[in-house]
Structures are given as structure tokens and as C-alpha cells.
Amino acid sequence: MKPLNYLEPECQQMQSLSDAYGGLCLRISRLRENENLKDPPSAVLKHLVELKRPYLNAFEEELLGFIEAKASITKAEASIGDVQDS
Q1: How big is the CA angle at 52 (ends 24 and 59), to the nearest 5 degrees?
Q2: Quick check: helix, strand or coil at residue 38?
Q3: Residue 12 CA from chain centroid, whole number
Q4: At what angle do helices 58-85 and 8-32 cross, to 10 degrees?
Q5: What are the residues whose beta carbons fall under 8 Å from the beta carbon of 49, sequence distance 6 or more?
Q6: How far apart are alpha carbons 75 and 9 in whole angstroms?
Q7: Which residues contact 60 (CB under 8 A, 6 or more apart)?
Q8: I want to staple 60 with a disulfide (CB 3.0 to 4.6 A). Which of 11, 36, 38, 56 is the partner?
Q9: What angle is formed at CA 50 by the lines to CA 4 and CA 6, rounded to 5 degrees?
Q10: What is the pLDDT along the chain (86 residues), one digit of tens a residue?
């Protein structure tokens, strides 16, 4: 294999992109595991996973943040419901 002679700033930039993409995948994976997630948000997550870039634009980030916020509220409400049913 031929070594890639990246300069230090280029290595840092590549690491930053890799970390960002890993974080994005983790966020989406956590949401997709949420049993209370309905079809429309699941469709948005599927689209975000299929993007060919390791970052989200401002609108996509806002959508993901909105879904995360609603999913955590739904999860919290489900937990409260479980406690009240006991």
C-alpha cells in the first residue's frame, strides 16, 4: 500500500470529519431503536442515513434535533405511564 502523505492539518480535518460522521450515525441509531418512533420520523432518519456526506446542513440538523427532542419526551412519557400503571 502506498502511504498518503497528509500534512498535520489535513489529518486533523479528516479525523474531525470521521468523528462527526460517527457521532451522526450514533445519534440516528439511537433514535431508530426507539420503539415509540412513528413512520414519518423514521422516514426522515432513513433519508439522513442515506446522505453521501458526513455532516448535516442547518435544516437537516434542526430536523434531527427536533426528532431527538420529541423522542426523548415520548420516551419520558412512556416511562411515566409505566410507573402510573403500577
Answers
A1: 60
A2: coil
A3: 22
A4: 40
A5: 25, 28
A6: 41
A7: 48, 51
A8: 56
A9: 10
A10: 566 676 777 766 666 666 655 677 788 888 888 777 788 888 888 888 888 887 889 999 999 999 988 887 655 555 544 444 44
